[in-house]
Design a protein that fits this description.
alpha/beta, Fumarate Reductase Iron-sulfur Protein, Chain B, domain 2, FAD/NAD(P)-binding domain, 5-stranded parallel sheet, 17 helices, globular
C-alpha cells in the first residue's frame, strides 16, 4: 500500500504511428518486482475468481517478487498456456476485480504476467516438454488460434499424436491475422509454436479442412477431432448502399495489413488502403479500435469510430459494483493517436457518388432502461458524415458454415454455434466455435477443458 501503481505506458504517439511495432513499453526489472510486491495476498483473491483460467495470481506474484523466476513461471503455466499472449492482449478481468481496484489502483497483473513470461523465455526456463510415452492415439485439431493451440499442446503432452490443420499459410489463427502487430508482434507466436513443434505437434498449414481433406477422411484417420475454427461469420450492415465499393469487413482489413507486415506482396489493386481517406469504423469494440490504429498507420486523412450504444460513464455506477467488470469508458492506445468517437448512432444508408461511397447517413438514438434492458428510441435527429472508406467492425455471429461443419454430424444451438456432435461421434469443440465470439483468455480456458474431455475419451477407448 506504500507503493503506487506504475504502468509501463506507451511509446510516444508521433513515434509509434510511424510503424507497426508494439506500442507498449517495458518497465525495468526492479520496478516490475516492486509492482508485484503490491499484491496483498488476499484471503479471498477476487483476481483469481475473475480470471477465466483461474490464474494463481497471488502465488506467482509472490514468487516474482522474490525473484523465484522458475517457480513463478511454473505457477503461471499451470493455468495459462500462453501468458506471453494474454499479457499483451487480455483486457485484464483480474485487475478489475483486484481488491486494490476499490481505490482505483489495482496491481498491474497483466503487465506483470507478460514481464514474467518474457523473463522466463530470456532465462531459458520455457523449453520443450517431451512426453515420456506415446498412447498411439491420433487427434486432429482444426484451427490454430488460442483454443486450438491449447488443445494441441495439452493433448500432445499427454502422449497423444496431434496434428493441427490450419487453412491459412501460417499457424496462429486470430492471434496472427486478427490482432495488429502493434499489439502483438508475431515473433511471440512463432516462438511458442516452435516449442510445440519440438514437442511433437505437427502443423499442416495451407490445408482447408473440409475441402483439401474431407470430413470423412478426418474421421477415418484420427481417433478424435477437435473443432477450434473460431467464430468468423461477420455481422453485416443491411442498409441501402451496402453494395457500393469501399466498404470492408474488419478482419479483411486487419489480416491483409498483418500479411503485408510479414512480407506478403499484395498487388495495388487488391490493397485495402486507408491512405488519404476519411475512414469511418462502425463498431465500438476492441476490433474497431484495432481498425482505428491500423487506419492511422496507413495515413488516413481522418478516422471516426461510430458506436450504436451510448457512451459509457467514466466511473462505475451504483448498479455496476466492484468486483464485477466495470461498464465504463475504455480508451485504447489507438484512440489516443487521433480518432473521433461518436455514440448512439444507427446507420440508415450509405450514399454513393461516381460509383463509390461518398457519405453515410445516421440516426441519433436515445437509450433508456426498461425491465433491466437498454432500449433505443429514435430522436428524429440525423447526422451525415463524409467518407471514402467504411470498415465494418460490428462483431461476429457464429462459425462459418463451410463444408467441414456441414459434413460432420454436428448439433447447432439457436445462435448458430456448435453445441455438440450427433451419434456419439468423436468430434469435440474448443473456443469460439462453441461459445460465440469471446476473449483470448476464455478460448484458452475452453481449450484446457476440451483437452481434458478428449483425453478421458481416448484413454477409455484405449482400454477397450
Amino acid at each position: 500500500m506504500d507503493i503506487s501503481r506504475k504502468e509501463a505506458g506507451y511509446r510516444p504517439v508521433n513515434e509509434r504511428v510511424a510503424d507497426f511495432s508494439e506500442v507498449e513499453q517495458v518497465l525495468n526489472t526492479r520496478d516490475r518486482i516492486l509492482q508485484a510486491s503490491r499484491c496483498m495476498a488476499c484471503g479471498v483473491p477476487f483476481c483469481h475468481w475473475a480470471c477465466s483460467t483461474h490464474s494463481r495470481i497471488p502465488e506467482w506474484q509472490d514468487a516474482l517478487y522474490r525473484e523465484q523466476w522458475e517457480k513463478a513461471i511454473n505457477l503461471l503455466h499451470l493455468t495459462n498456456d500462453l501468458p506471453e499472449v494474454t499479457g499483451r492482449v487480455c483486457p485484464a478481468l483480474c485487475e478489475k476485480a483486484c481488491v486494490l481496484a476499490i481505490h482505483e489502483e489495482p496491481v498491474t497483473i497483466r503487465e506483470n504476467e507478460v514481464a514474467l513470461a518474457e523473463m522466463a523465455f530470456k532465462m531459458g526456463l520455457i523449453k520443450p516438454y517431451l512426453p515420456k510415452r506415446r498412447t498411439g492415439r491420433k487427434v486432429a485439431v482444426i484451427g490454430s488460434g488460442p483454443a486450438g493451440l491449447t488443445v494441441a499442446s495439452r493433448l500432445n503432452r499427454a502422449g497423444h499424436e496431434v496434428t493441427v490443420f490450419e487453412k491459412d499459410e501460417d499457424p496462429g489463427g486470430l492471434l496472427r491475422f486478427g490482432i495488429p502487430d502493434f499489439k502483438l508482434t508475431k515473433a511471440v507466436i512463432d516462438r511458442r509454436i516452435d516449442i510445440y513443434k519440438k514437442e511433437g505437434v505437427v502443423f499442416r498449414t495451407g490445408v482447408y479442412a473440409g475441402k483439401d481433406i474431407s470430413a470423412r477422411q478426418l474421421l477415418e484417420t484420427f481417433d478424435a477431432l477437435c473443432l477450434a475454427v473460431g467464430s468468423r461469420e461477420p455481422r453485416d450492415l443491411e442498409v441501402p448502399g451496402r453494395d457500393l465499393p469501399g466498404i470492408w469487413f474488419a478482419m479483411d482489413f486487419l489480416s491483409q495489413q498483418n500479411r503485408i507486415n510479414a512480407g506478403a506482396n499484395i498487388p495495388g489493386r487488391k490493397r485495402i488502403s486507408a491512405k488519404g481517406k476519411h475512414v469511418i469504423v462502425i463498431g465500438g469494440g476492441d476490433t474497431g479500435s484495432d481498425c482505428v490504429g491500423t487506419a492511422i498507420r496507413q495515413r488516413a486523412r481522418s478516422v471516426t469510430q461510430v458506436e450504436i450504444l451510448p457512451e459509457p460513464p467514466l466511473q462505475r455506477t451504483e448498479d455496476n459494483p466492484w468486483p464485477y467488470w466495470p461498464n465504463t469508458l475504455r480508451t485504447s492506445s489507438s484512440h489516443e493517436e487521433g480518432c473521433v468517437r461518436l455514440w448512439s448512432l444507427r446507420t440508415n444508408r450509405i450514399i454513393g457518388k461516381d460509383g463509390r461511397i461518398h457519405k453515410v447517413e445516421m440516426s441519433k438514438l436515445k437509450w433508456k432502461r426498461e425491465n433491466g434492458r437498454m432500449i433505443p428510441a429514435e430522436t428524429g435527429e440525423r447526422l451525415t458524415l463524409e467518407t471514402d472508406m467504411i470498415i465494418l467492425a460490428m462483431g461476429f455471429l457464429h462459425p462459418v458454415k463451410d463444408k467441414l461443419l456441414k459434413n460432420l454430424p454436428l448439433i447447432f444451438d439457436e445462435r448458430g454455434n456448435v453445441s455438440g456432435a450427433e451419434k456419439e461421434a468423436p468430434v469435440f469443440t474448443a473456443g469460439d466455435v462453441a461459445t460465440g465470439p469471446s476473449l483470448v483468455v476464455k478460448a484458452i480456458e475452453s481449450g484446457q477443458k476440451a483437452a481434458r474431455v478428449i483425453h478421458e475419451y481416448l484413454m477409455k477407448r484405449g482400454r477397450k
